[in-house]
Every structure is written in C-alpha cells, then in structure tokens.
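Teaching assistant here, posting this on the class forum so everyone can see the example we discussed in section. The complex has two components, and the goal was to see what a joint structure prediction looks like when all of them are supplied at once.
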Amino acid sequence: MADIAMSNFREASQDAAATAASQPARTPTVVVDDVHIVYKVHGAGSGKGSATSALSRLVSKKRSPSIREVHAVRGLSFTAYKGEAVGLIGSNGSGKSTMLAAIAGLLPPEKGAIYTNGQPSLLGVNAALMNDLTGDRNVILGCLAMGMTPKEVESRYQEIVDFSGINEKGDFISLPMRTYSSGMAARLRFSIAAAKTHDVLLIDEALATGDQKFQKRSEARIRELRKEAGTVFLVSHNNNAIRDTCERTIWIEKGELVMDGHTDEVVREYEKHNRA
Amino acid sequence: MGLTPKQLAAKYGLGVSGKRPSLPTYVRQLWARRHFILAFATARLVAQYTTAKLGQLWQVLTPLLNCSVFFLVFGVMLKSRDSIPVYLAWLCVGVFVFQFSQSAVQAGTRSIADNLGLIRALHFPRACMPVAFTVIQLQQLLISMVVLVGIVLANGQMPHMTWFLIIPALLLQCLFNTGLAMVMARVGSKASDISQLMPFILRTWMYVSGVMYSIQGAIATWPPLAKTVMALNPATIYMDLMRYAFMPDSFSKHYYHGGKDASGHALPQHLTLPHHIWFTASAWAVVVFVAGFVFFWKAEEEYGRG
C-alpha cells in the first residue's frame, strides 16, 4: 500500500518540478543533479582494532575490513530558486543533514553534481564556534571569518548581541561560550551567521533549541534574508516551524525523494504517513 | 526549456559546490581575512592559559624550565658548557628559537582537527588556521624575547650592532614555520597516526639540531658530505643566526685566546657560522613557505569533512 502511495507522490513531485521549470522569471541558486553520497565509516565492525590485526593489514596491504560504506543519499535531484525557503523533512537518518552538508560543499558527491550560487553557509546544531572564548570574542571573530571588515563588525556588533538576546538575563556575552546552555549557544551562532546576507543559507535544526521568542525572531530574520534575494534551506522535525517559514518542502526518505511541492501538501502527506 | 541541470547551472553562472578556488583567488581571499587571522591569534593566545592560575606567565616559565633542565644535564653533567663561551645565553637562545619551530609544527598538526566546528560552521580560506597558529607562536616568541634579552645582558653580553640581525632572522624563520605548519595541517587533518609519531620526530629533530650542545664540535670528525647535510638543517641554521645576532663574540676567533678559556681549560676549534648561511636560511624560508602553501591549498575542499 505504502509503495503505491509513494509512487503517486513521486509523480506529483515531478509535476511540480515541471511547472517550476516553466516559470521563466525565477533564477536558480542551487541545482542538485542526481546526487549520490556515500560515507566511508571507519571503525565499524568489532574486534578489528587490535594491534596484531592492524599489523597484518599493513603487511598484506589490504583495506581495513572495518571501513564500511553507507549509501546516505541515492539519486536526489531538485532545483531551488532565489527568494525561496525550502524545508527538508523526513525521519531520522533519512539523509537530510547529509544533503545540507553536501550543498555546503563539505561532503563530495560520489555521483552527480551540486551547483550553487556563491558559497552556501551551513548552520548546524553541532557546529560549535570557539568554546573557550567569550561570547563577544565569538561574535567579532565569527564576523571577521565571514569576511566582514573590522569597521563593519563594529557597526553590526550591538545588533547581533541584541538579536541573540544573550544579554537579556545579565551580562552573559562576556562569559566563555563553554558556560552557555545549548540553547544560548545555538542562538548566538544563528545570530552571528544571520548577520551577513547569504546567497544560500542552510539551517540544520539550529533553531530547535531556542525558546519560543527567539524562534519567532529567527523566523522573521529568515524572511528578511529571503527578501534580500537569498535562498534558505531548513531541516527540522518541527512541522510547524517548516509551515511558518517555508512555502516549499522536500520530503526525503532513505536518501530518496518522496515528494517535492507546496509545504501544506507535503507536510500533510508526511504527517498522514507517520500516523499510519 | 529542456535544459539539463548542468546547462541550467551554467546558464545562471552557478559553480560546483565546494570547489577549490584558483591559487590567485585563494591568496586574495586569505589576504582579505588578515584581520580575522590577527584577531583569532590574539584571542587564542589570551584564552590559552585562562584555566591556569599563573596565567600567561607560563609562556615564559615553560621555556625557562626547559632551559634549566638542559643546563643541568647537558651543561653541567655532560660538560657542554666547557666548550662554549657564555653557555647559558647560548643555550637559552637555542631553546627559544627551536621551541618556535617546534610549537609551529605541533600547533599546525592540530590546527584543522581542533577547529573543525569553526571550519564547518563558517566559510573562510582554511589556510587562516595554520597561519593564525604561527602568528600565535610568533607572539609568544616576542614575549620570550624580552626575557631572552635579559638573560643575554645578565651574562655580560652588551647590545651590539648585530642585534639588528634578529629581525631578518626572525622573519625568515617565521616564513619557514608558516610553510611547515601548513604542511603539517594538511597531514594532520587526515592521518591520525601522525599525531602519535610527532613527539618522537620532534625530539629527534631537537637532538640532531644541537640545541644544547655544539653540533659542530660533535661532528668535527665526520666525512664532509655528512657535515654538509647536518649543516643544512634549518633548525641549526636559524639557531646559529640568532646566536650570532645576540652574541657575535662567541663566533669570533679572538674570544678563544690561545685555545684556552678563562679558567685554563683547552677549548676546541672555535664556533663558526657556515658559509652562505643567509642564503640557505632564505632558501629554506621561501621554498618551504611556497611549497607548504600550495600543498595546503591542493586539499582546500577536503578540510571540512573530518
């Protein structure tokens, strides 16, 4: 039953892609062309890490048997356009985060190609900045690393700190970042990355740890970024966040495209599928 | 219509994601991040010792403790000080200068792996990392230099015109270290086995460089080819340059009057600067810097993978 439903979705998504292609005014910013991504995982399997087996491997020049390949993304294709916010949904391990890392250029595709406009920035929940440095140092260094001049940093600094809301409960910005809660750290990271106009911004669950107030603020910032002709990708397990920020959603399952179309439609089908 | 994705990308000027920029573009990007490199280095330097009570004092204390151990073992017990005039100052210059290159190698090896979070989160030319870590080592060395000047003066060596040579010697070593750090950064980002081997390689390098004894004295009877090879060791060259700059007297003949020191001990053949030392020092600096930079750039797109 489920398989028939999936193939229906696929047809629907192809229709959506066809209508998208027939609109001439839109400029593509990300083109994903039949991408396959394969992870090589070291240290999989058991009992192969001993010194004797390592030595015999060296002698026989065989590849370590503990390297296993994981085919995380299998032949994904889609095109995203200027001013679009695209949600990526799917169950855990479906390949959403892998796809984002590949768009950011951090993972090479095994097959196929990804074309982007400029350098996409990936904002992941695990991407720590400099934990032993204070919050304000992180703001300054983060901005400089993104290529701002010292003058620009000076003029944006207060804005970034205010946006993050770190100082709402006292002077936290002058404490080392390792003392922050995960929510506070995520907020500061998002504020730093969002301070610059990005051609393509990839957000991987980065907003999930923020509180309600901050989520509202960041959704507003994402809308602004889109107005400044950027494209935003959002990975989230919070369907409401996807509904609020994205008008287009791509549903991935086991590394394959299930559905690509209007958020309302896709999320509705996704929720239906999950209830079943 | 009917464009393939590749044609579509080409039409709108989209580039392949994560592709490495051309070498001139890369140099331009790196130059544009100079403020980042400096700010990063300064912040790291300050943060390095925040958990230690004595704070930044350790920057000077660590090499001084090293010096005293070497002085005790090599100077007093193995009697190296008998063959070298102003041994304490000579030793301290060597230790500080060698430490400069050694810590550049160590920090370079870890510079990518330790900052993977930053590298994945923000996009910047990755060479910023090894370069910034070399700048940190340079800042540390400049602080130690103040102590070094104190030691040299306390050993009765008066300021001299040759002290100006400290600046070009340091610049050359800095260039050399940056290249070395970039090579090690790429190696260290991939092979984790290297980090286990590094302490042994560095210790070997230190012992064959003549940090705490005169390498010329030790290899005086070796065949000429072996002597030439040993004399090409960059660590020896940079140490000798700095020792000459600080204490030119210890390389002059009349210091060894009659082959005896003040207390009547016979002195071996006097220390000499190898021929063309400035040329060799510059060649090492330029070749290692350029080769290291290109070597690092070649894998630019791979550093975020980890």
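For the discussion questions: The radius of gyration of chain A is 21 Å. Chain A touches chain B through 50 residues (CB under 8 Å). Think about how each of these relates to the inputs above.
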